[in-house]
Amino acid sequence: MRVTFCTDLDKSVVVSNCEKRGWIQVGPEDEWNVYWAGTMTCRSLFSVDSGYRMNDNQIINHFPNHYEISRKDLLVKNIKRYRRDLEKEGNSLAERGDSKYLHLDFIPTTFVLPADYNMFVEEYRKAPQSTWIMKPCGRSQGSGIFLINKLSKLKRWSRESKTPFQQQLTRESYVISKYIDNPLLIGGKKFDLRIYVLVSSFRPLKAYQFRLGFCRFCTVKYDSSVAELDNMYVHLTNVSVQRHGGEYNSLHGGKMSIQNLRLHLESTRGKVVTEKLFDQISWLIIHSLKAIAPVVATDRHCFECYGYDIIIDNNLKPWLVEVNASPSLTSTTANDRILKHKLMDNIFSIVVPPSGIPDVRWNKIPTQQALGDFEILIDEDLAENTENCGSLKNGCKWK
Amino acid sequence: MEELKDKSIHHTTIKICEDLKKSASFISLFGDIQKLVVTPSVKSDDFKNTLLKAMQENGLESELKNSIYRWIKTKRKEVSPYDSFFRKAQIHWDKRIHKSLNSMCSELGISLAKTRGTSEREEILSKWTELTNFEVDINKYRPVYAPRDFLEVLINLRGPIRDKSQGDNAHWEFTQLPLRVKNLADLVRLGFSPVLHEADRLAREGSAMYPIGPEPILGVPYSMGVSAMKELLTQEFKNSWHATPGVRQAKTHIEGPSLKLTKCLLGINRRDIRMVTGLLTGHCHLSRHLQLIGIAEDPECRWCLEDEETSPHVLTECPAIARVRERHFGSSVLNPKDVKSIQLRKLCTFAKERSFYPELSRGEQILAANNSLSTTQAFTALEAERIDLGEKILAKNYAPLAQEFLKKGCPRCLRARMWSLLLGSEIKPQHTNYFEMLKEHVLQYDLMTDKLIIKDINLTASNDDQYFVFEDVLYQVMLCFSRDNDILKNLPNQPAFMQVVIKGKHNSVEKTMVFPPSGVIPFHGFSMYAAPFCYLFDKPDELYFVFRAFYLRYWHKLHRVCAGSQGIVSLCLLYEKLLQCHEPLLWNHFKKYHIHPLRLVIKWIMRAFSGHLPPEQLLTLWDLVLAYDSLEIIPLLAAIIIVFRKDNLLKVTTLQNIEAVLADLSSVAVIPLLQIALLKET
Ligand SMILES: Nc1ncnc2c1ncn2[C@@H]1O[C@H](COP(=O)(O)OP(=O)(O)O)[C@@H](O)[C@H]1O
Ligand SMILES: [Mg+2]
């Protein structure tokens, strides 16, 4: 049997990786085995009126309702619900101290606007000096984001955005999050991490973390003063924002590998704290996935690769900023291209059974070699069989 | 004989004392000793003993020992009959560089040095931590020279004529420069360097024969402190050269003080003496000894894994090296008494049989982070073990132990401290002040080399995804480096330097300065000597002193013509020899297409692989430079990489394509590569 693939992204990483495996490219109307689709295509494929039914030898790169994790408001909603549920169960994971969650405090305090406006104001009043960040729920690449440090600014913004003839068009909802104003700086600059996570199943949960990731640096020194509040080159780490700045360097694209970050941190801060940081990152990824697992329409044909945005503060605590369901596959530099090729290659190795033919009846337990640069984050099948899930990542107690 | 040696030791001691007195660290050490003297633990009626004891207790003694250890390292000097030839060549090259600097200046209509205006000063001061934003037009500047130019200089070196009768053969090709370099087998075998050990404390106890001056009333009179130190140094130094009889193993092997033995010892070279005495007395890299002084965990013999690894064991009975004994001594098992009758020469060759990069050549487990390994449990366990041991060594604060430790790989989290200890560059208040002073100089004067430095960082680190984040730190460090007159003072062969008039305020008296104060003119890629340190240190001043120590010990030898086994010429030669001997096919392939084999690697060697290897691997390589106190590992690695890419290299015939094969070193894993190559040889 010849394996066929289809893609509606014209990305060379996708095409060349599929061709390397001897797969044949076909159109969406043809018989395909692997579909690398955009989220829209995927949603319409799964919609009731499309009437499309996949057979056992077809797999596709999104879950039908991935927005449960990738929309900024839904992610927060799901995590809040997850914590509440655990708390009701009396699970020790949801323990609190000082009114904060001790183990699950990994997203900045966030409210959805306009819905939660009153709750936000109440929280705002507790610390009127702090800065907040406004982000449109459904957009990406840093667009529409701004910082506020006064309630009046928010009010003005809300008035202005409600000008009569925009009203119907742009009742866009926003999230407002506590701005992490003490980010870890290297060379004086703010950065965030892009970590890739592959999920091949939500129930049972099977997730893999890619060892190669990168830090995305701002091109301008970090400066928390009010004067720089509107300078997005200082505050937003998105490459799509930074590349428009005068200081952008296309040879390195502001990206430094996570291995090098780790080398630097271990060398300057020590092993224990660095290890703890990276363990906490894995921990927060696992719990963010567990938080959405109950609401994801699980489908054996689906797998998904997420791009996690994580900010580390200067106490070496990681914060989950957002999760992208279609992380950029565009390469900005030579190293970036190598990384994304590997990523794509390893994803296919994991989601395709050893036979080389996609098959949803497979138990989805890849061999050690197939993992490549991925590490098992959690596999509930394995965990149940061997009872040793605790040893996968030390210090994690997610059971 | 003994007397003569004592005299020379005495001489050296005086020299050490003089040098130490001049060093910056001495002031604080001396201050600390003075403080110690006024404490009750030092009694005036038994001044010397109580002082020594107190010094030992509060760690000042190890400070002193470390100073001596580092002093010996810096003074270790090889004399070669070609020294003056190389010195002349370097001076000639220095002058060419100066000329080209001067002509660049006159072309651009600028001066080499001038006083900065107030506004410019203030601008730099306010942007000190973000010098990227200090706008200077560097477009019109170009690097004074690049590795490729330096290679030309090296290739065109015309060695001295050794033998007049050879007449028409008078000119040496580069590869025929009359320098001796090691071959691979030498690299595997050479050198036991006995560790300065703790046992020597025993010896010191028995020697109270030097009179101590009048009792101190307030603090210690300078001369008296020194004489007490001097004595300590005498002992220290004495003990580092020959172990004192009375130690268990020595007694078995050496029959009392013997004139014959001394003669024999003096007949062979010093390195061999150390080796042989080490072996006879047990004070060398034997597990039992290493365990005693706290380096090794386990006295077990590394060859047979059965018995304790002691001198008698190795010399007489270890089953694993029976064949080696047979070859050297004519018998595979020896009676301990027989050892005394073995000729020294034989002992010497026997001892040479092992070691130099011994840890590498034995394929021992060395802690080296590479992707495939770093997640395994074995790695985690080994790392934990190394961290544990490393912390102990750091607590002992003893530099020679740090050097030993590095041989088997350094955990990332200890590297910065381990390097600082080894090099003596732990930061003290006077260092911070010194760094501030250098900064002040940068603020005050505008040197033409500043632009070269900025340009260099711009061309290298700023574009490199491993280093761009550290750009601003590098500006600070490199600018300060150029102002550091101590570098010029401490460089072994004084470079030719310029004396320039500072242009500036019209009415003031014309001032001159050494240009640049460090005497070092940066070449293209110079800042890469410092860049990797950014991974280890957050603070620029901490980084600075470790980098400077590295430069003074090693890096200067890589971009200046100098003789000696550590000089760039020998290193290049070593690379060529290795390649020629071990891969003649490849060698001929290069020759056939008129590609100078050195051309392919000169930038690796000149930059000690900085910017070529990924940081993790690079730091591992530099660990080894420190551990074996030798740069020879660099050409060795260069040759190995070439050899490992042989198949692909043989397929291409143009310089461009060959360079393409060698362009990406991101997959190189230093330790395994070296191990494979050196293991083959044993
Ligand atoms: N709470 C926060 N604190 C600090 N920085 C933030 C915060 N939220 C977002 N950012 C910055 O803004 C960038 C964009 O935010 P993100 O939520 O990822 O939106 P987008 O979908 O537009 O990328 C992040 O990469 C990060 O640098
Ligand atoms: Mg984002």
UniProtKB/TrEMBL annotation, chain A:
One Pfam family, please name it: TTL
Using the UniProt record, give the first listed, main subcellular location.
Answer: cytoplasm
UniProt-annotated location(s) = Cytoplasm, Cytoskeleton, Cilium basal body
Note whether Lipid metabolism occurs among the keywords.
no
Q: Which residues form a coiled coil?
A: none
Keywords, in A-Z order:
ATP-binding, Cell projection, Cilium, Cytoplasm, Cytoskeleton, Ligase, Microtubule, Nucleotide-binding
Superkingdom of origin: Eukaryota
PROSITE patterns, from UniProt? TTL (PS51221)
Name the InterPro entries on file.
Answer: TTL/TTLL_fam
Which family does the record assign?
Belongs to the tubulin polyglutamylase family.
Name recorded for this polypeptide: Tubulin polyglutamylase TTLL1
Q: Which organism is it from?
A: Molorchus minor
Q: What is the lineage of its organism?
A: Eukaryota, Metazoa, Ecdysozoa, Arthropoda, Hexapoda
TrEMBL record, chain B:
Signal peptide (from-to)? none
Transmembrane segments in this chain: where? Answer: none
Among Pfam families, the record links this protein to: RabGAP-TBC
Q: Which InterPro entries match?
A: Rab-GAP-TBC_dom, Rab-GAP_TBC_sf, TBC1D19
Rab-GAP TBC domain segment(s): 409-629
What is the protein name given in its UniProt record?
A: Rab-GAP TBC domain-containing protein
- Source organism (scientific name): Molorchus minor
